[in-house]
Write a structure and sequence with these properties.
The structure holds 2 protein chains of 2 kinds. By secondary structure, chain A is an all-alpha fold. Chain A has 14 helices and no strands. Chain B has a single domain, classed as Rossmann fold (3-Layer(aba) Sandwich), CATH 3.40.50.300. The chains are: A mainly alpha, B alpha/beta. Chain B: This is ABC transporter ATP-binding protein.
């Protein structure tokens, strides 16, 4: 009987935590959109948002309206979506490949995307019809398909997937460097480099809606497969003996995470370290069970990237830092702590 | 005969790892699977669990071909304890045992009362109830194997397959673990290296060599000087009526 009442109490605490987490995310977004170089009062910002939500006329100039509704808000929302999506993909990769150092880019997706992007920007592939985002998405999918074929041909075990990913990453990075060094001018190189490091500048509502829809769908699929991910704790044979169709689950999860990652990378570049570090942080908070871990990872990732992007665009204002640089600057020390805590006893 | 095989073979990369094995496991009996390294014990267990599909022949569960049964339904019937299964994750004992409920839970359902009851009962049967919230990584080898057995019991199976569960355990824990398996009174197939342990705890023994069955029967029928010389290439003295009325094997140096 006591166990029943304890777990009921625990469930109450859990719901409170979720509510607090979501409130924190909403608060973070609300605060982040009031911060920026333009001289806008907090009141102006919220009356603009209120106006667009149908809460009466804001009485703010069109330029100021545009700064809030067309620049700051979509950018902040895209930061939240990217943080959530990359963190989930990282958590899944780590569980699926049984590798604490796996991240969403382990399958060569970011380097494939960069090759696609430079082919469009530098070489002019697509004749102006294909945008940088589309080129990046196609590049990412091509790289992922290559990894999948290579890994399947080599037996499909987690270490083969990782090795295939390493091979693809090297190949596409080399192709990107080759194209940039042989053909690009200084201006193009700088633009490509900025994008490669991850940047949320220029985010529009179109990006928010596309990425949001893809991430949400992916999250639902992954949570549905949460018990299967739990079953991988002791390896693939153990998962199989627990009734999991290992090949099927692995394929579905690889494809879903690849599509999420490719969509996010094509919108915001390769924002590193979010997918590597935040799943570990989430595990420390809610434990390794995926039914809780995946939504918690998404929430922590969203809050994290909203703040990191706010720092990236304001610290050296008007000069903007690529958000990937800031995530790495925060991420590397965090990563060092993880490595230290996982150290092998001497 | 709840679990049986009919002329089952498993070929990988042109090598015949399991070669035409036919065996029947009687309900409630403990069958020991013997044979030197590489004789196909682990592979045969994987075929019995349905984790691998046979290249030819059939594995039958209550007379039905395992190939035609959904993985999830197999997992509710047959549970596996691998040798030395490890995890990187920071799990506690109860988390590991709870994995055994996965085949019983539907996609969106939260953990139910029957899940909690099954986990509690499984922990009690292996006498680990007090250790439910201990971290996996702080456990000794013997404790880890007991946790895996508890996880297997949480699956509420009718058949239990164990792959060298006593590997790397000291003598006390080897005896303790096999005594536990015995007391569970479930239909069990146990791959073992130690012939004396096999004689003490198994009702019947099946001996594999190069993937094929070379002997099967009670410990008294199977464990003979000739068979040990043939299969293990060692000289042994077998006392047919050793301690407890089961054969006892002592090895001697030199060629057989």
């Amino acid at each position: 009987m006591t166990t029943g009442s304890i777990s009921a109490a625990a469930r109450g605490v859990r719901w409170t935590l979720w509510a607090a987490g979501l409130a924190l995310l909403a608060l973070s977004i609300a605060v982040a959109i009031t911060i920026g170089p333009a001289d806008l009062s907090v009141g102006d910002v919220f009356s603009v948002v209120g106006q667009h939500l149908g809460l009466g006329d804001a009485g703010v100039s069109r330029i100021r309206d545009g700064i809030v509704w067309e620049l700051r808000l979509p950018r902040t929302l895209l930061a939240a979506v990217c943080g959530a999506g990359l963190a989930i993909c990282g958590a899944i990769m780590q569980s699926l490949l049984r590798n604490p150092l796996a991240d969403p880019f382990v399958l060569g997706i970011s380097s494939g995307a960069s090759t696609g992007a430079v082919m469009v920007v530098v070489l002019g592939v697509g004749g102006g019809i294909i945008t940088l985002s589309t080129g990046a998405f196609i590049g990412a999918v091509v790289a992922f398909a290559m990894v999948l074929l290579l890994a399947a041909g080599a037996g499909g075990t987690p270490d083969r997937v990782v090795l295939a990913g390493v091979a693809a990453t090297q190949l596409f990075s080399a192709l990107t460097s080759f194209i940039v060094t042989s053909s690009a001018d200084a201006e193009q190189t700088r633009g490509v480099l900025f994008w490669l490091l991850g940047s949320l500048s220029g985010a529009g509502w179109h990006d928010v809606l596309t990425c949001g829809a893809v991430c949400l769908t992916g999250l639902v699929v992954c949570i549905a497969l949460a018990p299967a991910l739990d079953a991988f704790a002791f390896g693939e044979d153990a998962a199989s003996s627990l009734g999991i169709s290992v090949r099927w689950v692995r394929l579905v999860l690889l494809v879903v995470t690849a599509l999420i990652t490719a969509t996010l990378v094509s919108a915001a570049g390769a924002i590193g370290f979010v997918g590597l570090v935040l799943p570990h942080a989430a595990r420390a908070v809610v434990g390794p069970g995926h039914r809780l871990l995946l939504p918690a990872t998404a929430l922590i990732g969203a809050i994290f990237l909203v703040w990191v992007d706010t720092v990236a665009r304001t610290v050296f204002s008007p000069q903007e830092l690529p958000v990937g640089v800031v995530t790495a600057l925060v991420g590397v020390p965090a990563f060092a702590v993880i490595l230290y805590r996982r150290r092998v006893p001497a | 005969m709840s679990l049986s095989t009919r002329d089952v073979s498993w070929v990988v990369g042109g090598r015949r790892i399991v070669d035409g094995v036919t065996l029947d496991v009687a309900d409630g009996s403990v069958v020991g699977l013997l044979g030197p390294n590489g004789s196909g014990k682990s592979s045969l267990l994987r075929l019995l669990a349905g984790v691998r599909s046979p290249s030819s022949g059939q594995v039958l569960l209550d007379g039905v071909d395992l190939a035609g049964i959904r993985r999830r339904d197999v997992a509710r019937r047959v549970a596996v304890v691998e040798q030395q299964a490890q995890t990187e994750l920071d799990l506690v004992v109860a988390d590991v045992v709870r994995l055994g409920r996965i085949p019983h839970r539907s996609t969106w359902a939260p953990e139910g009362e029957d899940d909690r009851a099954a986990v509690a009962e499984a922990l009690a049967r292996v006498e680990l109830t007090e250790m439910a919230s201990r971290s996996w990584h702080t456990l000794s080898g013997g404790e880890r194997q007991r946790v895996h057995i508890a996880r297997a019991l949480a699956q509420q199976p009718q058949e239990l397959l164990l792959d060298e569960p006593t590997n790397h355990l000291d003598v006390h824990h080897q005896l303790d673990l096999l005594d536990l398996v015995r007391r569970l009174r479930m239909t069990s197939v146990v791959a073992l290296h130690d012939l004396n342990l096999a004689a003490m705890f198994c009702d019947r023994l099946v001996v594999l060599k190069d993937g094929a069955v070379v002997a099967a029967g009670t410990p008294g029928e199977v464990l003979t000087t000739g068979l040990i010389a043939d299969v293990y290439r060692v000289r042994a003295v077998v006392t047919p009526e050793g301690p407890g009325g089961v054969p006892s094997v002592r090895f001697e140096p030199g060629p057989p």
